[in-house]
Amino acid sequence: MRKLLSSKWTKVVVFLLCLVPLGALAWRAFHGGLGANPVEFVQHATGDWILRFLVFTLAITPLRKLLHLPELIRFRRMLGLFAFFYACLHFLTYIGPDQSFVLSAMWKDVAKRRYITVGFAAFLLLMPLAITSTTGWIRRLGGKRWQQLHRAIYASAVLGVIHYFWLVKSDVRKPLFYGALVAILLLWRLGDWFFKRRSQAPVRITAPGVSMND
Amino acid sequence: MLIRKAPELTNADITPKSVYLDRRKFLQAMGIAGATAAAGRGLWELAFATQTAFAATKLTGLAKSPFSTTEKQNTFEDVTHYNNFYEFGTDKGDPAKNSKNFNTSSWSVSVEGEVKKPRKFSMDEILKIAPLEERIYRHRCVEAWSIVVPWIGFSFSNLINLVEPTAKAQFVAFQSYFDHRQMPQGKYAGIDFPYVEGLRMDEAMNPLALLCVGMYGETLPNQDGAPVRMVLPWKYGFKSIKSLVKIKFQQKMPPTTWNLSAPGEYGFYSNVNPSVDHPRWAQSKERRLGEIFKRPTLMFNGYGDQVASLYNGMDLKKNY
Question: Which residues of A touch B186 (CB under 8 A)?
């Protein structure tokens, strides 16, 4: 398993798999499979895939630790960038067919409708993360600061779920499903952080005033 | 081969009527006896007719209506496979999928309340209340999409006149059929059933208010509200109640389903109004199915000449 995960071919395969949703949409587009409202179909499909990729990305760290598979980290950046990729497509369907590429109308809409506001915020939060996803940027920011910045994905995922929840009229099963997944993944982190702190606490007590780095 | 036929037909720029005729010819050619029983469904399902639910019957001798628009009609396929009927599920494709076995035989509509002649109407009786007309209406959903549909029916006022409302009749309350065994998806809808709607008496008397029994030349498909529904083209689609079983005339304003569910979002009147936005859908524009970019929404969905006078002196921002 670990050998498979560290193979460079696995990365290629995962990359191609991440493109399957886009391919499926393209196939449907050319075969009249987008239904009576193709714009809405693409909006819903890309929206679903953003949330899925955010969940995949957030699942890497817990899985890596629970399954003792450190190699999983190799896929995190790619999955996160695909979340951003589908978010860009999602945004394009909004600013294009919905807003006819009129920026002033778009800003009014973003300010006016709360589900658009939070969706737009979720998209904006992903932007700096995508830009600073390169190894060069990790070096420039330093591991710690980079990590702090990239915790913005938590907020983005939560806002994405709220965006979906506020969008649906009355049947909230699907937004609640994504909400539960994001909640589990974030609560795991909270638990992990809490237990780490507790297990570190005795060290500090036995060596008061002595910095760990000295 | 058969599967590929459907998109070709719907994408072709032909009138829905000819879609309908082609379908019949196609079936005859295939020699599928008795398949007419399943007509009123998508071509794809027809070709692979495994379900023969309630029959769609051709309605003939339809009068033309001066209220009809000349705009391009949406295809039968679009109108039957993209709509809301929450009793059968909340996805736009759910009603077509889940209403196949909806049993609408031995249907009756009970008319009661403040009328001199309360009674039950069978479907046969309803079809004889007045001559059937074809009315090609714009239909605007609150979710900012719209369609053009050739409905069949007659002005609801014909029924009102038959039952002779008393002076106390100020409002009309409508109720949809609901049976959780026939509509098991209803429990996930997030709204209470049976679905209820209402109109003010003068709105109900307006000739545009259509008691609808068919579309595209035949009886209503299950997913579009068989066997009888209301069509109110100047109001958002959810006001046009489907699968009607009860009509009650009363003095008080009746409760309405979406207003009960979210009073800040859906009012009693729910007239199409581009200047009053819904919190989730800007109502100034709409997407006509079949188009990519949105078009401006018209006040009263373009039926102002017929209905604007009903609301003289009313603040439509408050009475949304």
Answer: none
